[in-house]
Amino acid sequence: xxxGLKEILKLAQEDKCAVGMFNATxxxxxxxxxxAAEELNKPVIIAHAEVHNVYNDISFVGPAMLAAxxxxxxxxxxxxxxxxxxxxxxxxxxxxxxSVMIDTSALSFxxxxxxxxxxxxxxxxxxxxxxAELGRLVxxxxxxxxxxxxxxxxFYTRADEAENFVAQTGxxxxxxxxxTSHGFYKAQPKLDFNVIKDCAKATNLPLVMHGGSGVSExxxxxAIAAGIRKINYYSYMSKAGYEAAKKEIAAGKSNYLHDxxxxxxxAMKEDVKKAMRVFSGM
Length: 282
Known about the structure:
The chain is an alpha/beta fold. The protein has helices at 5-15, 27-40, 58-71, 86-95, 109-125, 159-169, 193-203, 217-226, 235-251, 257-279; strands at residues 2-3, 19-23, 44-49, 76-83, 99-102, 129-134, 173-176, 207-209, 228-233. Helix 2 (27-40) packs parallel to helix 3, helix 2 crosses helix 10 and helix 9 packs antiparallel against helix 10 (257-279).
């Protein structure tokens, strides 16, 4: 069933767990995520990231995501991940997404606040939830370093700024920086759980972990206990599909692309299930 961001995060808050957000870059990953959620009977957030629009335009994949959500046996929120342009945010809202993320965290605090407030007013008027980001991860959505030779802690989210930001914008969820990064980790990240605790206390809002792939199970559990209620997970799910596709091709049993895609879908579904078990405390 199709639900909104506030509704699905309320479920996570009640159960003191986190709901997983998984990017649906195509129909294989969409089937994998919905299939995993239904098999585990867990709510889920499926997302289209603006950076992925080159692979499947939102006008093509968006309606499919909404149809899958409406037909699902579990609560599903359809979310725009890392909307960096107002054009993409408004396209998602017009299509019917129940949640959008406006990511202007690379701008000044004042500009981030101004644009986020504008988006929130419009999205709420259309019945959609809003996630924003305060603080910055040193890597971008593609996993490439955006802030070279920098101390990541200098970009961690400050609780006092978070309190002010949330009060003025009225967002429904806040992504914070506390030691994670996008893409693949070369070593286990060092997470500052006090940043989460301080921001949770200051904002009284569901907090979001970006760069969730590759964090240890212990790291997930401690982050959730501190106040994380949404975890973005994609890179390692995609890698699982990639490795399964390579294995299928190497086996040389088929010359059909659909066999490769099916193998990738099944592998992604199992990886998503593994992540969801941890996020939900199973």
